[in-house]
Amino acid sequence: MDNHIYKIIEVTGTSEKSQESAIQNAIKKAGETVRNMRWFTVTETRGDIDGDHVAHWQVTVRIGFRLD
Q1: Per the confidence metrics, is the pTM higher than 0.85?
Q2: Where residue 46 sits, what CATH number does that domain have?
C-alpha cells in the first residue's frame, strides 16, 4: 500500500431545498477544481429564515482530498 498525503479544504454550500442538497452543491462545485476528493465532514449547518420558514440551507463541509 502506498503512503498518501491528504489536504483538507472548507467550503459552504447553499440550497433552497434541503441540507443534503446544500452538501451536494458544495461537493459538486469543489469538484470542478479539486481532484482526488475522498471524504467530507459536516462542520456547521445553518439557515436563512424568511417569515416563518427556512428560505435557504447553508452547510459548511470539510473536504479531504489526496495530493498527487
Answers
A1: yes
A2: 3.30.1660.10
